[in-house]
Amino acid sequence: MDGFVVPNNSASLAFDNINLSYGRWDNQLLYRIKDFALLGEQYVDSSEGSLVCLATQTSVERLNSLPQVAANWQGKMSVALFAAGPEEFVVLQYFVTYMRLCFANIRENATFHLLTPRDFDKLPRVAALPLNMRGKFDCQYPDRTLKALLKFRSLKTLQWRQRNTYPQNHMRNLARKGCQTKYVFLTDIDIVPSTNSVPQLNHFFRTANCTKSCAYVIPTFEIDVRATFPRSKNALVRLIRKGLARPFHEKVFIYNQYATNFSKWLSPNTNETEVSVSHVVTNFEFLYEPFYIAVDNAPAHDERFLGYGFTRNSQVYEMHIAGYQFYVLSPVFTGHWGLQRKQARPAWREQQNNANRRKFDVFKSEIFVRYKNDPRLLLKAKKNQILVK
C-alpha cells in the first residue's frame, strides 16, 4: 500500500460514531471512559481460540509502537488510548484508521478503548485535518506518519498535557478489562513481544496447572537501536554477548527487574522450542516491576497513583502481599528499544514521583490490613524464632 493517504471523507475514519460528550466515569470522576470504542474485525472470534490476550496502553505520542508489537503478537490485543482533547482525538482517528488499513493484524485483532479527561471539551476543537501529505502516509513509515499528524496539536493542548499527569493505572485497568481471554499479558506500548509468542504461550497455558495465585513473568531486555530485533532466544543471547542488548533498566534502576534473575534465565539451555517455567522468583524486591501474564483476577492497579512513580510496582507489590507466586517463562521474552542511561529527569517527573511516594505509604498500610499480611511482622517473628533457638 505504498503512498497510502488517509481519506478526507470523515465517514471512513475510526471512532466516527463515537460521542465523547458522555461515557462512564472513573471512581474519582476525573476521566470519561469508552469501553470497546472500536472492535477488531475478528476480535470476538479470535477470543474463542486463544487463551492469552495482550493488554497495553498509550498516549497518542507513542501509538506508533503498535505496528511492531502487532507484527510480533499475532493475536488478540486490547489497547487503551488516552486523548487529552478534541485535537488529539482527531489525530487518533486518523492514525488508527491508517494502522487498520496498513496492518491486517491490527485491523483484525486489535480492539481500542478510549479515556478522556473531565475538561476534554474545554480544549481546542478541530473539525478535520488538511491531509495533503501523500509521502508521509506510506504504510512502511508509521513513525513518520504519526509525527506529521502530531504537528496539528495547538500550543494550548500541549500546555495542558504538561500540567496534567498521565493516568497510567486507569489505562492499565481499562486495557486489562478489555481482554476476553482467561489470561492477560499486560504491557506498556513500547514493550515488543518476541516473535511467535502467541502459539507458544497458548500451547503452554493449555496444560498450565497452577494450584495457587500465579503470575508468569516474561523477561524484558533493552535492545540497541543499531541491532535488529532478535527472532529467538539464541539471537538475543548473541546480542547480549556483543553488548547490543541487556536486561531492562539494568543501568538506570536495577531493582526494577532484578528479581527476575536474568543470569539464571540466560544460563546455557538456549535450544528450547516450547515455553516452560525457567525458574521461580525467590528474591522478590520491593520495587519489582515485571511484565507478566496472569488470570485477570489479580488486584487492579490502584488509580490514586497518577503520572510517574509507584504505578506498576504498587500493583505487583500487592500481588506479593496477597500471596502470588511469580514464575519466569522461557524462551519467550520482550524487548524495549534503546540502551537506557542515567540522565537528569525533568522536574515535573520527580514531583509526580514524590507525590505518589506519599500516597504509597497509605496504600501499603491498607493492603497489609486487607490481606492480614504485614511483611515487617513476619520478619520480626522469624528473628524471634532464631533468638529462641
UniProtKB/TrEMBL annotation:
GO MF entries: glucuronosyltransferase activity; metal ion binding
InterPro entries, per database record: B4GAT1 (IPR043189)
GO cellular component labels: Golgi apparatus; Golgi membrane
UniProt KW keywords: Glycoprotein, Glycosyltransferase, Golgi apparatus, Manganese, Membrane, Metal-binding, Signal-anchor, Transferase, Transmembrane, Transmembrane helix
Keyword DNA damage: no
Pathway: Protein modification; protein glycosylation
Topological type in the membrane: Single-pass type II membrane protein
Cofactor: Mn(2+)
Location(s) in or outside the cell: Golgi apparatus membrane
GO BP: protein O-linked glycosylation via mannose
Chief site of localization: Golgi
Reaction catalysed by this enzyme: 3-O-[beta-D-Xyl-(1->4)-Rib-ol-P-Rib-ol-P-3-beta-D-GalNAc-(1->3)-beta-D-GlcNAc-(1->4)-(O-6-P-alpha-D-Man)]-Thr-[protein] + UDP-alpha-D-glucuronate = 3-O-[beta-D-GlcA-(1->3)-beta-D-Xyl-(1->4)-Rib-ol-P-Rib-ol-P-3-beta-D-GalNAc-(1->3)-beta-D-GlcNAc-(1->4)-(O-6-P-alpha-D-Man)]-Thr-[protein] + UDP + H(+)
Family listed: Belongs to the glycosyltransferase 49 family.
Name used for this protein in its record: Beta-1,4-glucuronyltransferase 1
Organism: Drosophila melanogaster (Fruit fly)
Origin organism lineage: Eukaryota, Metazoa, Ecdysozoa, Arthropoda, Hexapoda
